[in-house]
Amino acid sequence: MTTLTDATHDPALRSWVASANEAGADFPVQNLPFGRMRPKGSDDAWRIGVAIGDQVLDLRLAREQCPWSGEVSAWLAPLADGDLNAFMVLGRPAWRGLRAALSAALAEGSEQSPFLELCLLLQSQCEMSLPCRIGDYTDFYAGIHHATTIGKLFRPDNPLLPNYKWVPIGYHGRASSIGLGGAIKRPSGQTKDAGDAAPVFGPCQRLDYELEVGAFVGRANALGEPVPIGEAEDALFGLVLLNDWSARDMQAWEYQPLGPFLAKSFASSISPWIVTMDALAPYRRPFTRPDGDPQPLPYLDSPFNREAGAIDITLEVWLQSAVMRTAGQAAVRLSQSNLTDAYWTWAQLLTHHASNGCNLQAGDLLGSGTISGPKPGTYASLMELSSNGKSPITLPGGESRSFLQDGDTVTLRAHCASPGAVRIGLGEVSGTIVS
Ligand code: CA
Q1: pLDDT digits (tens, 9 = 90+) for 164-194
Q2: In CATH terms, is domain 137-434 a member of 3.90.850.10?
């Protein structure tokens, strides 16, 4: 990865799809995220689409109906078949090449617009599925402010464990229960109150969300072959929002000594559109460590990672209770934080994951860990906002919340903004708790 931005990021670029040019749109022509879709209510085969404004460019139709060069047509073939994994394995030259072709085709003045107009569908008329086959899911713990705030609840004098600033902490999550949100069934499990002699089995009483970002691996590494950090960027395909729903009471009882298990594996929700790492180039930031903190070990360090390893993404959590919904009251924002607060970059997380020879595969999902800032308005879970239930928060209608109630809808949103670049968004992911 050498030159970061190119003509596809030009803020002056406009699309012939009018809604893509509206201020504040998540999906201007500079974004071009991939999702897996079909017309709502149809039993058509799934295909990959690209979000543009409030529309989706159906790449199955686009490949059939529009003239493309042989090279672009070959890149579109797996996407027309709904197989994003097969496109991922083609690697960054294909990702960049197709991005350039789609950018030109969707830009104002494109000669392809008369063909592609026939390949658009309103997003509201699309049914979305998971964007790709997710073989494995690993959740990291790179939000140092989250780790510190949570750690303080249990170890006020020593919130961060001694390994935290040296080794990226993670655990193996459950891929099969990843979805796009919607109804999230309250899990049941073992919980034990401090004063009780024995645990009980029953519905989770301390259900929480975690605002995270997910990264899709695009390039596999063979078993036994680590990924040097200089190659890690080329193995990263793109980002989504990730809600790591968490049953805090189950987690507290089960997590020692091996970490989270059933407290996390009942559901994780991602946003449907993968915003590519190429689209995120204008929002790259230097990766720095606070004075006095250890520098990463050499295998997790590179000049590029220091110069541009971090990504500036504003992250938000919104909540609407059933009572608020009935009263016609809009969702309230619970927090706003930024991915630059992560203690490790995506390249470091990927390189560390593969450093023992573990083989990552195209479509594997890496979670960032909860990305909180250092202050209450930036706390990205209810456990932080309510100090583990000790200080409930008050919602606009007067209800209070320590943890999620049935009927609560949690929505994660994210966007990137930078001088000299157009704002782009990651879209959103919503889930509503049901009993
Ligand atoms: Ca998590």
Answers
A1: 999 999 999 999 999 999 999 999 999 999 8
A2: yes
How confident is the model at residue 66, as a pLDDT? Answer: 94
Q: What is the DSSP letter of 342?
A: B
Ligand 1 centre distance from Cα of residue 18 (Å): 38
Selection from 128, 34, 16 nearest residue 86 by Cα: 34
Check if the beta carbon of residue 266 is closer than 8 Å to that of residue 279. no
Whether the domain at 7-127 and the domain at 137-434 fall into the same CATH topology: no
- Enzyme catalytic residues: 146
Give the distance (Å) from ligand 1 centre to CA of residue 362: 21
Structure tokens at 129: 């599925």
The full set of domain ranges for the chain reads 7-127, 137-434
153 alpha carbon to ligand 1 midpoint, in Å?
17
Cα(178) to centroid of ligand 1, in Å?
A: 13
Look up residue 317 and give its amino acid: V
DSSP code string of 202-224: EE-SSEE--EEEEEEE-S---TT
In this structure, how many other beta carbons lie within 10 angstroms of the beta carbon of residue 23? 7
- CATH number of the 7-127 domain: 2.30.30.230
User: pLDDT under 70 in the chain at which residues?
Assistant: 1-3
3-state percent breakdown (helix, strand, coil) of the chain, nearest 5: 30, 25, 45
Identify whether the C-beta of residue 38 lies closer than 8 Å to the C-beta of residue 127.
yes
For ligand 1, the distance from its centroid to the CA atom of residue 370, given in whole angstroms, is 6
DSSP string, 9-44: G-TT--BSSGGGGSTT-S--TTT--EEEEEETT--P
Q: How many CA atoms, within 13 angstroms, populate the side-chain half-sphere of residue 209?
A: 33
Between the CA of 248 and the centroid of ligand 1 the distance, in Å, is: 11
Q: How far is CA 191 from the centre of its chain?
A: 30
| pLDDT value for 4 | 85
Q: How far apart are the first and last CA of the chain?
A: 47
Q: List C-alpha distances in Å: 208 to 188, 274, 363, 398.
A: 14, 24, 26, 20
- C-alpha dist (Å) from residue 262 to 25, 177, 179, 270, 370: 38, 11, 16, 19, 18
What is the pairing mode between strands 137-140 and 170-172?
Answer: antiparallel
Q: Beta partners for 336?
A: 316
